[in-house]
Amino acid sequence: MLTLSKRKKTNFMIDIHVLQEIKEFIPDGERSDFLNYSIQRGLEDFRNKVAFEGIREMRKKAKLKMTTEEFIKLKNYGRE
Q: Residue 67 region, left (φ>0) first, then alpha (ψ -120 to 50), else beta?
């Protein structure tokens, strides 16, 4: 799941229904690992979203009209 590294106790707010589900489904000794893993996955998703938005913005500025499929075909031209 996660590699253990230094940890720091922190306080933050979460919705009550989320906390209730965590308490219901995640055993006591596994909650920190679960939350670390979930937050890490959420950060990866967010970084990807930001990157793709940046790519879309660059395509707009460069006035590229190519579809993703056309771009991939052009990028791979001549490769077998």
A: beta
19-41 b/e with 16+ CB inside 10 Å = b?
eeeeeeeeeeeeeeeeeeeeeee
Q: Is the pTM of this model over 0.70?
A: no
pLDDT of residue 63: 76
Residue 52 CA: distances (Å) to CA of 45, 48, 79: 11, 6, 25
Q: What is the CA radius of gyration of the chain?
A: 21
Structure tokens at 7: 């940890």
Three-state DSSP class for residue 23: helix
Rounded CA gap, 1 and 5, in Å? 13
